[in-house]
Amino acid sequence: MDISTTYTQQRENTLQRRINISAKISSSLHQEIPRNTTPIVKIRAKDYNMWFDGKDVEIFIKKVENIAEIEGESGKDIARKIAFWTKDEEISYHIEGITGYESANWDQLQVDMKRRWGKFSPKKRYRLSSIA
Asked: Are 51 and 85 in contact (CB under 8 A)?
């Protein structure tokens, strides 16, 4: 075997490897991406002019639930979006740190938000003897 034949074979092998690699890359790029089959519902706070400012959390939660019911959105979807319905980055940051937000659990998120921003009104207890 002479040098030119060896060089030609090495070049052909290199070209064949490049073609194989190129084919693998091409086939992996054209694989179908699995799509979510559930319809996407887009509720935007700006569409309803509704923003959470840290006040009246109970009223805000009721409004969110009413709008979600009208639009057909699930609790999980609401829990994922609620942090974007604030104009204050600090409030958004606190919401993102809540357990209910991280797990996308709307029921837990409501409880946590009410605990954080709700009115604290302990029940006053009296003894009958102190009233009379």
From this structure: yes
